[in-house]
Design goal:
Layout lengths: L23 H48 L12 H25 L2 H6 L5 H10 L2 H11 L10 H13 L1 H17 L1
Helix pairs in contact: 1-2, 1-4, 2-4, 2-5, 2-6, 5-6, 6-7
Length: 186
């Protein structure tokens, strides 16, 4: 019986002479690789821009809080409930909560989604953080009107509630929906 030869690997196509253009398939692979690297570079750059925008906003808000407390004659607890210092403090803590939430969401999203999402614009990132302060003001109004009953409504508690509401606007919506449901039931 004749001995069978093992399967030989398929023959490779002859190497292309230097100076000629690569075949069409190879060119396509090179272009796709280049685009993939461009997306990663763009995503990294956008992420960096967004984080710097959020860091600058947080710094400005913290400076506002320092200025509010440094220029006040009375301690924070003695500020009037609806005075401009208290409202600016509540707004500031809501903005800090929203900024923190926005930074956390940037960390969690994938690079590819981030590179193509409309949230990649610095203006959108900034407005997201600033508009996140509005639930902080809403939560403060709930606290002052006793819709949200957490005991004595002092300013330090109001600032903490504003931060939480800025961080999670869903919490404020849930309180509002609960209150609206109770009103309809009556």
């Amino acid at each position: 019986m004749p001995e069978e030869e093992p399967d030989a690997p398929p023959a490779r196509p002859p190497a292309e002479p230097v100076g000629e253009a690569p075949p069409r398939r190879a060119r396509r692979r090179l272009v796709l690789r280049s685009r993939r690297h461009d997306r990663v570079d763009t995503g990294s750059r956008l992420l960096g821009e967004q984080l710097w925008t959020l860091a600058l906003l947080a710094l400005l808000v913290l400076l506002l809080l320092v200025a509010l407390t440094a220029t006040a004659r009375a301690p924070v607890q003695q500020w009037p409930a609806w005075g401009y210092r208290t409202l600016l403090g509540v707004f500031s803590f809501g903005a800090l909560g929203a900024t923190f939430s926005a930074a956390r969401s940037l960390k969690g999203s994938s690079l590819r989604a981030r590179a193509h999402a409309p949230v990649s614009d610095a203006r959108v990132t900034l407005s997201r953080a600033v508009l996140g302060a509005l639930p902080g003001l809403a939560a403060y109004a709930f606290l002052q009107s006793r819709v949200l009953n957490l005991g004595d409504a002092d300013n330090s508690k109001a600032f903490a509630i504003a931060f939480i509401a800025g961080f999670s606007e869903r919490l404020v919506l849930k309180v509002a929906e609960t209150f609206a449901g109770e009103q309809k039931a009556r």
